[in-house]
Amino acid sequence: MLQITGALRRFSDEFALGPLDLAIAPEEIICLVGHSGCGKSSLLRLIAGLDRAERGSIQLNGVELAGPNTFVEPEERQIGFVFQDYALFPHLSVEENMLFGLRRLPRPVAQKRVADLLALTGLAALGKRYPHMLSGGEQQRVALARALAPKPSVLLMDEPFSNLDRDLRDRIRQDTIDLLRKTGTTAIIVTHDPEEALSCGDRVVLMKSGSIVQAGTGREMHDHPVDRYAAEFFCSFNKVPATYRNGHLETALGRFPCQLDLADGSRAVAFIRPQAIAPSQEKTAIAGRILRRSFRGEIEQIELEIAGSDSALIMRTTQPAFADGDRLSVAIDSSRVLAFAA
């Protein structure tokens, strides 16, 4: 287990990482996510030993790597690192890149380990090639295989898919997760992409300004955000002014049940997902008029003018049979409405 307790690192009077606590179980894949400058990569550097915390401790499998009186050098931590630019040695072949971290092993043992990983990553035919002869996806796999070669206790990956085209990125990401599962590797993956974060780990850790905002499964983070920042990071919303009264949000679009630690009559905001709005023929449906439509491939985004509402209501639908200016009545799934204090 990787245990981070009270870790703090000041970078300036304006920004500090932590103090923060985080525990990662063996074979767990964690995804660190947040906007640029939130401290994701800085946390990886503390774990790897590339930077030193001013306070707190970092333990791996019960052994202290960093603490008030302890600092284990990076090369002694049994922690692998895949950098954003892969950092392959350009003058070494694929095999030689992978052998670099196995210099302490007997040559036959190291060569067997490299051969096994080349086969596991689908790189067996590329072992003699040099980095400049490889595609971006192949370079990423070589960097991953090189990091896995010494059998690290934890693998750190700093935005490893960001340099890849979208279609290739999705495939390489899934291949990477499959390989980490197959090898039983504990991993921390950094990304700034909300969709990637939700889909590629056992848990997601959302960061902001050097602190952890929320940690949980992708589903928990998406469906049950702890605050407005967490909600808006993973999804776009219609934000509708509301009044909190008797366990409900009262809005221009109707009443929605919720529980807030607010006095009756307090101002609040209803966060309504575009996907929670659907065409309806019910008598209680909300009447609107289509202002404009935007084709988004699999879905169409529709902006609705609603009487009594100051701003357009955004909905997303797979039904294409609408035109600008059409009258359209909709219903809102109240179970998918989030409530926050104003």
Q: How would you describe what is shown here?
A:
There is one protein chain. This protein has 2 domains: 2-232, P-loop containing nucleotide triphosphate hydrolases (Rossmann fold); 236-341, Beta Barrel (OB fold (Dihydrolipoamide Acetyltransferase, E2P)), CATH 2.40.50. It contains 8 helices and 21 strands. It has helices spanning 40-48, 94-99, 107-120, 136-148, 166-183, 194-199, 218-223, 228-234, and strands at 2-10, 16-24, 29-33, 55-60, 63-67, 70-71, 79-82, 154-158, 186-191, 203-208, 211-216, 238-245, 248-251, 254-257, 266-272, 277-279, 286-295, 300-306, 313-317, 327-332, 337-341. The strands form 4 sheets. Strands 7-8-9-3-10-11 form a 6-stranded mixed sheet, with helices on both faces. It is globular and about 75 Å long.
Quickly list its features.
single chain; 342 residues; alpha+beta; OB fold (Dihydrolipoamide Acetyltransferase, E2P); 2 domains; six-stranded mixed beta sheet; 8 helices; 36% strand; globular
